[in-house]
Write a structure and sequence with these properties.
transport; ABC_transporter-like_ATP-bd; Rossmann fold; ABC_transporter_ATP-binding; four-stranded antiparallel β-sheet; binds adenosine-5'-triphosphate; 9 helices; 10 strands; about 250 residues; nucleotide-binding; ABC_transporter-like_CS; six-stranded mixed β-sheet
Length: about 250
Amino acid sequence: MTPITSALSVQGLTKCYDRPAVDELDLTIHGGEFYSLLGPNGAGKTTTLRMVAGLLKPDAGAISIFGVDALADPVAAKRMTAWVSDEPMIYDKLTPIEYLEFVAGLWGIETSTAEARALELCSWLGLGPHAQDRCEGFSKGMRQKVALAGALVHEPRLIILDEPLTGLDARSARLVKDVLAERVRNGATVIMTTHILEVAERMAERIGVIAHGRLIAEGTLAELRLKAGRGESSLEDIFLDITEETSAAA
Ligand SMILES: Nc1ncnc2c1ncn2[C@@H]1O[C@H](COP(=O)(O)OP(=O)(O)OP(=O)(O)O)[C@@H](O)[C@H]1O
């Protein structure tokens, strides 16, 4: 058996609309890594992550999640993954606890384990005081936290997040970041898009920058600084440098 070295491996991934949104993209995320995928608006980040999460069919390419061919065996791949977008889809008529237990049930998680995980996630994400209220009256930030909890309830090994901090206040954003950091400490792998570069700068072990559906830079912050020839610059400065040429060409 070939040893599995990556949590996620994407090769030649392609999706075209009227023009290529993702263009023969190669990407490797190591197990236990926090990886941030950055790029200008329209670069192809969401399209990439939706294909990885099994929500969008690629035109070409391969996706492997912990060695499982995600296109050939999407159910096995989905068992190991969580998908969180900035448009949370939850059931309004349920309370957070009911929702989490419902999602856990779909994954076949035993009731007592589901109850314990639901309570733990609600407490971590500061949902405790509202755990018994229906989600229909919740603010966007609270809905986002319920959706995140729902995505984590089956303890996925690969957590895929598309702009998870959009619309969250500082305290909620901190709670979400703490939960993600805790998951990574416990062995999970995170790939996250964000336009909040300070978050990528502080949390990500490696950063990938895409433009026009292609990876144009990748590395640790130190490596990106070195490549850009920019001593102690912020990620924002480096990002603007790296993407300047591609935005001028757009
Ligand atoms: N369903 C669709 N139909 C047609 N074009 C699409 C569709 N979805 C995405 N695109 C196009 O594909 C390209 C990549 O879009 P995508 O949403 O992946 O970018 P993004 O990097 O996530 O951008 P943003 O940072 O603005 O969210 C864009 O040019 C977008 O207009």
